[in-house]
Amino acid sequence: MNLTVLAPVPGVVVALDEVPDPVFSDGMVGPGIAIDPPAGPTDGEIDAVAPISGIVTSLHTHAFVIQSNDPDHVGRAVLVHLGLDTIQLQGEGFALHVEQGDEVDAGQVLVSWDPNDVEASGRHAICPVIAMEAFEEELEIIADVASQIEAGEPLFSIES
To answer: What pLDDT is stored for residue 41 in this prediction?
Structure first.
């Protein structure tokens, strides 16, 4: 049984090689896909949700890693990076709802943030979603590139 990875944020699905950061677009971190969250004249704040159930093994205001705790998916983990170069914001504009080490369910809110604020700071709000320690051929992209997706909808799956 494959591990289904959910979209952590709403937005438009973007091929990973289109992410304007070579660390992600060249696959240095691992294979995956990205989501360009909505921006524009709204209050802007959105929630980033857990893409899989598991343990929060790494948590920063701008990025998190969830390690699956399902025996069928041992060693599988997913990295979500909220925007590019957002580490430079030093947590400004991000609100954490969990702590490192917490057990979370897929779809659970982990971080609230405003992509408009990220864009206003001169950074890109695109969110790479990466299968850690996986190979490109182990991924099956479920969501159509250039399509709209809601947080919590299936994005891709990883072979077990």
So the answer is: 56
